[in-house]
Amino acid sequence: MDSATRDGVRLAVTETNLDLPLVARGKVRDIYEAAGRLLIVATDRLSAFDCVLPTGIPDRGRVLTGLSAFWFEQLRGVVPNHYITIDPDGFPPAAQAQREILAGRAMLVERCRRIDFECVVRGYLAGSAWKEYRETGRACGVALPAGLALGSRLPEPIFTPATKNDRGHDENITGDEMAKRLGAPLARRLEEASLALYRAAAAVAEQAGFILVDTKFEFGLRGAVGASGRPVPSEGDEIVLIDEAVTPDSSRFWDARTYAATGSTESYDKQVVRDYLESTGWNKRPPAPALPPEVVAAARGRYLDVYQRITGRPLVER
């Protein structure tokens, strides 16, 4: 038996405990201080309806980290990012004792000052934007043409920011509201960066046979102190893409061929898990029910499929 299997069954890594200062333990990621940098470990934990489930999805964390590393490399020329390496040889000595567990699921990054907004870009009408459009003809304050249907391609990608909530629902806000809170110059730079990243990523996804329906980016500012000499955003700070990039957790992917043939808007993400939970009658309050093996296998298969199609190679067995 190795660290990833037991009796031939793959095990999920749902928590890590490294000999490094723990900065945060989120719904999915454990983040450690690493000599002025951060070591971000994507576990196999899974949340749905704002609740962390008791059942992990084996290899999910490795897919999220591998895809983020791929996209950080692909998009580096569009917007700078905080990615340094996923090679365990580059990790701090204190992490080496658990390098087998960390391999493929941990990422060493530059530490930045996080901007507490989710920068969402939508190229198609889906999710909460579809619900709002049906009621108001708008999406997060952006007026859209009449007559659109679920899954319609928008005339142009739109920027629809949200406040960031590490433990609950993000709240959609308008671009004007974001500008009030951050200042118009910085808000405009974030919008321009987000739209440029979306267009570049959508072109790569298209080559893999996916439609990048929507995605959300997080940004930070380089350095502990900004251009103003204070740890607050200012016009002269450099914007850096942080956290994860264009994974099934942060993005909605549709299969392009199926969409063209049938109009299907089935997503390549944890939708199979959400569908199962809905079928159980769970009240969406903790504790969440455990997932049966067939749902775990189906979800894992979706993640592995997205990884292979986007990167052009299968996830390395460990």
Commentary on this structure:
This protein has helices at residues 60-75, 99-102, 127-136, 175-182, 184-207, 256-262, 271-280, 293-311, and strands at residues 5-6, 9-10, 22-25, 29-34, 37-42, 47-48, 51-52, 83-85, 106-110, 112-114, 117-124, 138-139, 142-143, 153-159, 162-163, 171-172, 210-222, 239-242, 251-255. It has 318 residues and is α+β, with helices and mostly antiparallel strands. The radius of gyration is 20 Å and the shape is globular. It is built from eight helices and 19 strands. A hairpin with a 3-residue loop joins β3 and β4 (29-34).
Key structural traits:
318 residues, alpha+beta, 8-stranded antiparallel beta sheet, 5-stranded antiparallel beta sheet, 8 helices, 19 strands, globular
Provide the gyration radius in Å: 20 Å
The outline comes out as globular
Count the beta strands.
Answer: 19
Number of helices: 8
Determine the N-to-C terminus distance.
12 Å
N to C succession of SSEs:
EEEEEEEHEHEEEHEEEEEHHEEEHHH
Category from helices, strands and their pairing: alpha+beta
Helix content: 25-40%
Give the biggest beta sheet: 8 strands, antiparallel
Low-confidence stretches: none
Q: How much beta, percentage-wise?
A: 25-35%
| Arithmetic mean of pLDDT | 92
